[in-house]
Request: fold
Amino acid sequence: MSNLERDPVELTCPPEEPTGPVVQVLAPREVPLGGPRAMNVRRTLPQRGRTTIGAWCFADHYGPDDVSVSGGMVVPPHPHTGLQTVSWLFEGEIEHRDSAGSHELVQPGAVNLMTAGRGISHSEVSTPGTTRLHGLQLWVALPEASRHIGPFFEHAETVPVAIDDATVRVFVGSLAGNSADVTVFSPLLGAQVDLPAGGRVELELDPSFEHGVLVDVGPVTVEADGPDAPTEVAWSELAYLESGRRRLAVSALHGPARVVLLGGVPFGEELVMWWNFIGRSHDEIVEFRRQWQADVIGRDNPDGRFGTVGGYDGAPLPAPELPTVRLKPRS
Reply:
């Protein structure tokens, strides 16, 4: 998915030991996404108070949207570098095409993971039969050792498992003995957790991970080991837990609930993140943009770094103008 915000964001390693409240609640902001026919999404990562959770560096939450009103998702071909995209749906269907030759449907219960590596381009369009669109688009920052690998795409079904009152689907990493069949390059966790009205689930956490709980249907209460009382977290908010926590309890309030649990070992590399690119310096981002504009938009080298998305009926998305100041990591 294309990120149309233009501000650079630094992704840095948080403190190794918990230093603040056990649960910190982060509010989303609304962002237009996808070019001329932009749809609005609620973004909780990155933000100035919290730029990463493990290697998770970007979280957009959208829907449930009536496609007859919103027009659905139409994101033309656009580039990525230095990251993985993770597409996860609750309702609807999206057609994915990329320059590595992949053509796949994104559907509820299955995860689509695209590794951009040194460079890829892709498009995302909701299918004609979709009446409601509802899901998440997530990015994972690739560590230095992996960020120049060749691009590839994976699609994997997930299996629902019962834990306490909850139904859990793991789509990245492992939780409670359940694992997802996709490739990651740093220790990560991604899981959907559904609770009935009045339901509660208690999960054992990897204390080397920091975690986030994004509420899709709520509110819920979130409780971790520590002195604090349970914290209420509203729809679309993200509850953040620093590393060192070993237990997480989530309870549904006022009806059924659904959350997405994200986790990972704190990411220790400084990154520059602008538009759809993740790099390590201002000059690297400038070069990525130059190549996209020349090779793809200008058609100078369609077989270059970003390739060509076959089967998409329309023009690729031009990059926005760079800011007038040098991009730099933000503390």
Remarks:
- Residues 4-18 have pLDDT under 50 and may be disordered.
- The two ends are 26 Å apart (CA to CA).
- The CA atoms of residues 189 and 235 lie 21 Å apart.
- The chain is about 5% helix and 45% strand.
